[in-house]
Each structure stands twice: as structure tokens, then as C-alpha cells.
């Protein structure tokens, strides 16, 4: 087989394990005749074979099967330890089929019988070619493994989620980022669709968009979608992907990347919220200015206008009383407006204080609804009070003034918006809380407007706000007060059929105090013998109080500041009552009260103030005052105080 073009001139480094010189020459001759340029190493025993393998490298090993004290199995064992990649061919005089199979199992690539030496070059050529192919394949596999590992490292470390879905949208691949985003094992992601990780409403929104993209076999470009991430937190993903097509152009899936843009979206939303808040603030300021101007000027116009008529001496008595009623009503409206603005300011600023105490619920409730019942009778509106029987002598621990004000706000609204029909007000004792309610058959509120009625300056809409008098702060104040005492408030309504407001406050197990009958010592109604100290620095306020005192025939003294009030009380033991203004020069009313009570603890001191804010009464009583009279004081209220402390 001289001149074989495939192997002619090929250099071949061969290790031959053969104890027969004749057979060694035969092997050499066959390979040279085949065209190989040989670099031969000849060994005859185990020691030489082992040394040769350790000292040099070979293209192929040719080994006799049986040698003195050694055989091909032993040679294969040594080869497998030192250089398992070198092809091994057994060249033997005789070898059975079973032995040949065992040699091949152990790693030999072929065997050649010595009586057919012409086959040796073919076996060598095939072994060299297969070895080369195996080495190339092994190298390619190693490079592939390196590439795969490199890709895995990139996918593992990237901040984006790499995925692949089939034609049905089910994930067939997910990078490690998928586990981090959803806190789910990768096997739990595979087989699911993107919609399985979205809230229902988001899946409904995104579904048609995906369907259109798939129908067009188009790329997915910058599609924002919200998903439910780990711990139930919402995450926004920016999806980009490319379609995967088979040889016929049919869509078999998508491959793409999701970027977590939650922080960016939240930042954008914060900017939007800030912008909306700023715009709302501007609108609120405008509404505040317009509202306060309207709600102060309107009653002032009536007070000033009808007040000048009262000065006309020829005015008939019935007209005078009518005009006086208008002035009085407008004054009350003005006082209520100012009180609402002050309360709202304290609620918003967080300075409204809660004063909780124990009180009997039923008397407070009855007293609160009394005025509404009278007004309903005047307007021919049925009024029903719903009081559970088990509430007799029920003691409540809360802020009684807050509860009274909340009920008054709800009752005032019911009266304002009810022209006919009825108003119901009551409460129920539930497990862990008390629930109060006010229902009316008035104009009602549209369902889409219920969400705004607790906002400042809002009734149902702009026309309603202007169609009915009021600051537009009532329900906002009520909600703020309810929250301050740990409660909740809600409203239900139907247009043209009426509204129902409920508020619930925490309540521990009722404490029955037993029948508490209070026996009052009958006091004299003769106020002429009393000597009252009026501590008041404002001249007009004093003149007003002086007129009342003269009208009822009561004796009085005046102090221009707190320090003077203390000195007068020290010098005059006949003073039976002090009307103490809170805000005065030199020394305020609180300090003066505390000093007077040090030497005359039995002397009743009534706080009189133009502050008149919710919570002031508790604050002044806690400071040592015996009573509270907000300005402007009514004659009837002042007379009641004089009779009480006579």
C-alpha cells in the first residue's frame, strides 16, 4: 500500500511494546510501507513501558498481548493512569473474541492479528483520525462549556431578567433574576405565563396588547407592566423581546429581557403626586380665600345692615325683634365659621388635643339632640331619637366634647339639606365600640360624589356648596375629630332619598354605675347680693358685661389684668364669683386663677375667652378654672352662672 495519499509523509511518534525483534521489525515495515515517517520507541517490558509514557508523548501505542510477566491488560491499565487520551492498539498473534471485547471495554481502540499485518496501517490511520476527531470534539465541548458558563455567569449577575416563552406564552427558560423578582424557585416559574404574575386588572389591560403583538409576530418594545413581586410588593417591569420563528416562518415563542423600573416609576409618581398636590394646594388656597370671604362677609353684612336699623327709635317693636333675630342668627353663623376655621387649623397642624374622661352617655346625647329636635319641630320635620334600653347609666371613656361636636355637625347637615320628611339620630352598643348614626330624608348625595364630601370646602358639588350656607369644613372637622379619638366615619346616600352618616368609637365593656340621682341644693336666684369681679382688659368686652350686670342688678368690680385681679381678690373677701379673661397683659388668666386659688380655693373662677376653640374648656378646667364661658357671652348663660354659684 505504498504511496497512500492520505498518510504519505505523515510524521508518527509510536511507542511499541513488543518482546519479539521479528515482530517489531514487521510492525515497523508495515507502517513505513504505508508512508508514515516514524519516530519509534521500542520497549519490551512493564518497566520500560511505564518509563516511556512518563518521559515522552506519543501519537499511538502498539502493544503485544502477551509478554513475559506482563500483558496488554496491564499496559492498558498503566496507559489509563498516565495518558488515557493516547490511542492503544493491541497487536497479537492470537486473541479470542471475548478477550478482544474486554480490551475494547478497557479502552483499546482496536486489535490487529499478526498473521494479518497488512491491516495494521488501516487500524492506525483510523485510530489517529478518531483520536483527532475526539480531541477536536472534546475541545469544542470544553469551549462550549466555557461559553455556557460564561453566559450563565452573565445571566446570573445581570440586573435584568432574561426569559424565553413558547408559542403559548409559557416560560421555557428563566434566568436567576426571575427567582429574585418573584421569590419563587425557577421550576415554579417555568410552565407559567407572564399573566400569572400580574394582578387581575393588569392582566386584563396587558392581555390585548400582547395578543396584538403575537398576532403580528412583532417585537415587544418597552412594554410597561405591573407584577406581584416578593412579599406581595408591586413591581413594574419594562419588557422587550424578539419573536422566535421556525424554518417555515411560524412563531414558536419569544425571547427577551425584563428590566425592573419600579424605583423609576415610583419616583415619577412622586413627581406627579407632588405636582397634583401643589395644584390642589393652590386650588385649596383659592377656595379658602373665596370661602372665608363669603362666610365672614355675608353674616357681617346682615349684622351691620340690620344693626343700624335697630338704632332707629321709630321702628315698631315687632320689626325690631325681627331685625334683632336676624342679627343674632348672623352673629351665630359668624361665630360658627370662625370656630370651624380654628378647629380645622388645629386638626391639620396636629395641635388639637384629646381630653378623655368618663361620662354618662345618655345625658350627653339627650342634651346634644335637644336643639335639633326643636328646630325640626319648627320646620315640620319628624325627629326620632334611637336610644338602646341597655344604655341606661352607661359610662363611656372618651372625649365628650368631640362626640358632642361630631353629632352637632352631622345633625346640622341633616337639618340643612332636609326640607321635609324626617331625621333619625341614635347609637348602638356593639362589641368593642359604640356606633352613632344620623339619617335624613333630604336631597341625598350622588354615588360618585361620596368620596369627596369629607374634603375641605366640599359638599356635593360647587353649586351645592354655594346653594347652602356654611364653611364647607363640617364633615372634614368631623372626620378629623373621629380619627383623633380612634374611630371611623362613613357615609351612604341615594340621590333625592336621603343620607346616612355613621361613626364608631372604641368602647370597653359598659360599666353600670347604678342609679345616680344627683340632689342639688336649691340656691337663691337673687343675684343682686352677689359681688362679681370682671377681669377684662378689652374696653368693649367690659362694657358689654357691665350692661348685663346692670340689667340683672348684680354688683361688680373690674380688674384690667391678671395681677390686678389677684390683688383685688386678696383685698375683698366679699367677691363671690370671678369672670376671668384668659388673654390679658401683665399676667394671663390661667396664672391669676392658680394664684387666687392658693389663698381662696373655694372661690369659683369662670374662664371667659374669645378663643372658644374645641378642647379649650378641658384645657381651662384642667388649669384650675371652675367653669367656661366663651365670648361673646349671652345674657342667659351669664345669668345661669350667677344663679349656679350664688
| Strand content bin | 15-25%
CATH class of the largest domain: Alpha Beta
Helix % is 40-55%
- The helix count comes to 19
How far apart the termini lie comes to 146 Å
CATH fold topology of the largest domain: Heat Shock Protein 90
The structure class reads alpha/beta
**Named CATH architecture of the largest domain:** 2-Layer Sandwich
Low-confidence stretches: 461-466, 510-525
Mean pLDDT across the residues is 85
**Radius of gyration over all CA atoms, rounded:** 51 Å
The total number of structural domains is: 5
Largest sheet: 5 strands, parallel
CATH superfamily of the largest domain: Histidine kinase-like ATPase, C-terminal domain
Give the overall form: rod-shaped
In total, the number of strands is 25
Please characterize this protein's 3D structure.
- By secondary structure, this protein is an alpha/beta fold.
- It has 5 domains: 11-137, Response regulator (Rossmann fold); 158-260, 2-Layer Sandwich (Beta-Lactamase), CATH 3.30.450; 267-349, Helix Hairpins, CATH 1.10.287; 357-512, Heat Shock Protein 90, CATH 3.30.565.10; 531-644, Response regulator (Rossmann fold, 3-Layer(aba) Sandwich).
- It is 46% helix and 22% strand.
- The chain is built from 19 helices and 25 strands.
- A 5-stranded parallel β-sheet has the order 2-1-3-6-7, sandwiched between helices. A 5-stranded antiparallel β-sheet has the order 9-8-12-11-10, with helices on both faces. It has a 5-stranded mixed β-sheet with strand order 14-16-17-19-18, with helices on one face.
- β8 and β9 (171-174) form a beta hairpin.
- The chain is rod-shaped, with a radius of gyration of 51 Å.
- Mean pLDDT is 85; it is low at 461-466 and 510-525.
Amino acid at each position: 500500500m505504498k504511496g497512500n495519499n492520505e498518510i504519505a509523509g505523515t510524521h508518527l511518534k509510536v511507542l511499541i511494546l513488543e518482546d519479539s525483534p521479528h515482530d517489531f521489525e514487521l510492525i515497523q515495515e508495515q507502517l513505513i510501507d504505508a508512508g508514515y515517517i516514524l519516530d519509534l520507541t521500542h520497549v519490551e517490558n512493564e518497566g520500560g513501558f511505564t518509563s516511556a509514557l512518563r518521559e515522552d508523548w506519543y501519537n499511538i501505542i502498539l502493544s503485544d498481548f502477551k509478554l513475559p510477566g506482563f500483558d496488554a491488560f496491564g499496559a492498558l491499565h498503566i496507559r489509563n493512569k498516565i495518558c488515557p487520551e493516547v490511542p492503544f492498539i493491541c497487536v497479537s498473534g492470537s486473541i479470542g473474541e471475548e478477550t478482544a471485547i474486554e480490551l475494547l471495554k478497557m479502552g483499546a481502540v482496536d486489535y490487529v492479528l499478526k498473521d494479518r499485518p497488512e491491516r495494521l496501517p488501516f487500524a492506525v490511520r483510523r485510530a489517529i483520525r478518531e483520536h483527532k476527531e475526539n480531541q477536536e470534539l472534546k475541545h469544542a465541548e470544553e469551549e462550549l462549556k466555557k461559553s455556557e458558563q460564561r453566559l450563565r455567569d452573565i445571566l446570573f449577575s445581570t440586573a435584568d431578567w432574561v426569559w424565553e416563552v413558547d408559542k403559548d406564552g409559557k416560560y421555557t427558560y428563566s434566568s436567576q433574576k426571575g427567582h429574585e423578582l418573584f421569590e419563587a424557585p425557577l421550576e415554579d416559574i417555568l410552565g407559567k405565563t407572564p399573566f400569572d404574575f400580574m394582578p387581575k386588572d393588569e392582566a386584563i389591560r396587558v392581555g390585548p396588547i400582547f395578543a396584538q403583538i403575537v398576532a403580528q409576530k412583532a417585537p415587544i418594545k418597552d412594554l410597561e407592566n405591573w407584577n406581584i413581586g416578593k412579599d406581595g410588593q408591586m413591581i413594574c417591569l419594562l419588557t422587550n423581546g424578539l419573536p422566535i420563528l421556525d424554518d417555515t416562518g411560524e412563531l414558536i415563542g419569544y425571547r427577551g429581557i425584563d428590566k425592573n423600573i419600579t424605583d423609576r416609576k415610583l419616583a415619577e409618581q412622586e413627581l406627579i403626586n407632588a405636582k397634583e398636590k401643589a395644584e390642589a394646594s393652590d386650588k385649596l388656597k383659592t377656595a379658602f380665600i373665596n370661602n372665608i370671604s363669603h362666610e365672614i362677609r355675608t353674616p357681617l353684612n346682615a349684622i351691620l345692615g340690620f344693626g343700624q336699623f335697630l338704632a332707629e327709635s321709630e321702628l315698631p317693636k315687632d320689626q325690631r325683634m325681627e331685625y334683632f333675630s336676624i342679627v343674632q342668627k348672623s352673629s351665630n353663623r359668624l361665630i360658627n365659621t370662625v370656630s370651624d376655621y380654628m378647629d380645622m387649623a388645629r386638626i391639620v397642624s396636629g395641635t388639637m388635643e384629646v381630653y378623655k374622661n368618663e361620662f354618662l352617655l345618655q345625658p350627653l346625647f339627650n342634651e346634644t339632640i335637644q336643639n335639633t329636635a326643636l328646630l325640626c319641630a319648627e320646620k315640620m320635620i319628624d325627629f326620632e331619637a334611637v336610644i338602646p334600653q341597655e344604655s341606661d347609666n352607661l359610662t363611656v371613656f372618651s372625649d365628650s366634647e368631640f362626640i358632642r361636636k361630631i353629632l352637632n355637625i352631622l345633625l346640622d347637615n341633616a337639618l340643612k339639606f332636609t326640607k321635609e320628611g324626617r331625621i333619625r339620630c341614635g347609637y348602638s352598643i356593639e362589641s368593642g365600640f359604640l356606633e352613632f348614626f344620623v339619617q335624613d330624608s333630604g336631597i341625598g348625595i350622588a354615588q360618585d360624589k361620596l368620596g369627596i364630601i369629607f374634603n375641605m370646602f366640599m359638599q356635593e358639588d360647587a353649586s351645592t356648596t354655594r346653594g347652602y350656607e356654611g364653611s364647607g369644613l363640617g364633615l372634614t372637622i368631623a372626620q378629623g375629630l373621629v380619627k383623633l379619638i380612634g374611630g371611623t366615619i362613613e357615609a351612604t346616600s341615594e340621590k333625592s332619598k336621603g343620607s346616612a352618616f355613621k361613626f364608631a368609637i372604641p368602647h370597653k365593656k359598659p360599666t353600670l354605675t347604678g342609679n345616680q340621682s344627683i340632689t342639688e341644693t336649691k340656691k337663691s336666684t337673687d343675684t343682686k347680693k352677689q359681688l362679681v369681679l370682671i377681669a377684662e382688659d378689652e374696653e368693649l368686652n367690659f362694657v358689654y358685661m357691665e350692661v348685663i350686670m346692670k340689667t340683672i342688678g348684680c354688683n361688680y368690680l373690674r380688674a384690667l389684668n391678671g395681677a390686678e385681679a389677684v390683688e383685688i381678690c386678696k383685698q375683698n373677701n366679699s367677691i363671690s364669683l370671678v369672670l376671668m379673661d384668659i388673654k390679658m397683659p401683665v399676667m394671663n388668666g390661667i396664672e391669676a386663677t392658680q394664684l387666687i386659688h392658693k389663698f381662696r380655693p373655694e372661690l369659683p373662677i369662670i374662664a371667659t375667652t374669645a378663643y372658644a376653640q374645641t378642647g379649650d374648656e378641658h384645657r381651662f378646667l384642667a388649669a384650675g378654672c371652675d367653669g367656661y364661658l366663651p365670648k361673646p357671652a349671652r345674657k342667659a348663660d351669664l345669668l345661669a352662672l350667677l344663679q349656679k354659684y350664688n
